[in-house]
Amino acid sequence: MKTSTRKFDVSKYLDSPEAIQEYLEIMLDENGIEGFQRALGHVAKAHGMTEIAKKANVGGESLYKSLSETGKPRLDTIYNVLQALGLQLSIKVSC
């Protein structure tokens, strides 16, 4: 019997606000800004990149590039994407 595998796509599992929040927090804590950026791309993909780009007032292709592994999104882009996803950016004191 032959075993087949498929590429794991995390965006298929980001189906609740709690899962999204936890995923973004873990990726930021464990992987820094690059991990957060990658995770934000996964979340945007899960919600439909084109729809998120429209809500964030960003071009679709520009958003793909910004949230790619080599992208360098501006803070206002990240902020607008988070708002488009119904999320807030907050600051907390580190321990």
Question: Main attributes?
Answer:
mainly alpha, single chain, globular, 95 residues, 4 helices
Sheet with most strands: none
Query: Helicity level, as a percent range?
Result: 55-70%
- Structural class assignment: mainly alpha
Count of individual beta strands? 0
Q: Helix-strand pattern, N to C?
A: HHHH
SSE map:
Blueprint: H1 17-47, H2 49-55, H3 60-66, H4 75-84
Helix pairs in contact: 1-2
Describe the structure.
- By secondary structure, this protein is mostly helical.
- It has one domain (15-84).
- It is 58% helix and 0% strand.
- It has helices spanning 17-47, 49-55, 60-66, 75-84.
- Helix 1 (17-47) crosses helix 2 (49-55).
- The radius of gyration is 14 Å and the shape is globular.
- The termini are far apart.
- The model has no long low-confidence stretch (mean pLDDT 91).
Quick summary of this structure?
Helices cover 58% and strands 0% of the residues.
